[in-house]
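Task: encode each sequence below as structure tokens.

Item 1
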Amino acid sequence: MYSFHLEDLKRLERKVKSLFKDFLSEIGFGSHNRDASAKGQDHLPTRDLHLCPKVDAHETDNEIIIKCDLPGAKKEDIHFELYGDNMLYIRAETKLESSLEKGKTHIQERRHGIHSRFIPLPSTANTDEIDARFDHGVLTTRISKKEETKLHKINLL
């Protein structure tokens, strides 16, 4: 039977934290810079990240509605393109606020970097009729459906 002492648990905790910090550093978070770590800034990103924004897609009888979260993005930094007849591409870039670079940062969880996503559209999408609006960090896209694919209800006699 094993007997664990407090020092063993503390050593295990330090090892797990070290492994986690190394992993986060490899994917763009954290730093191996001991000077930054001593200042409590080891959690700061070392490079911009490529981020995949969250998307909701909903289809009604007449249209396809796509909502894409782009927090911190500005309207002028959003690129919105259509590839072929069925692939929507959304890209936005958010930047780290310069005020965060001065002083001592205690927590930094908001993401910055390139937000991009390809969204496949159904064959029913009429890509000649697309309306997109950006409000409060959410890009809402409404795409009409082709007339021949709209749902036509038939009343039973």
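Item 2
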Amino acid sequence: MCACAAPSSTWSSNMAADHFVLEREQVRKAVLALQAFWKSNSSPDALFPSASEHVSLLFTLWKIPKKQQNIRIPLPHNQRTETDEVCLFTRDEPNMTPEQSQRFYKRILQEKGVHSVTEVIPYKLLKTEYKSYESKRRLLGNFDLFLSDDR
């Protein structure tokens, strides 16, 4: 199902502006159409009607932004639980041992209020400690989610 609209009714009429604003009424109509679709396709005897449903959100840009923009969209329900084990792979900081790099990134995460990462593993430590197949499998089994620094 697609709840789409023409650009003129979805976006603000000032196309030369630096940012675009979705019309609240159009978004409300799209959400109501999606809810009606879910209700019509859900099974009445399902224990959790939306447990197997996945929602994808796709943004199509009419103009490519001049600079990269990161926009956070807060979601009311998280995809993972608070008990999930999360591992972060980071780069090796210059002039630091792997243990110092690990402490450095843990401190940054605490300062930024990120408490969901349970382990930080610098690249050098990853290459030395997890060489064998068994240790890689053990690492895979210890964590539910792996994140990586993109540098």
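Check on item 2: The radius of gyration is 22 Å. The CA atoms of residues 7 and 56 lie 20 Å apart.
End of task.
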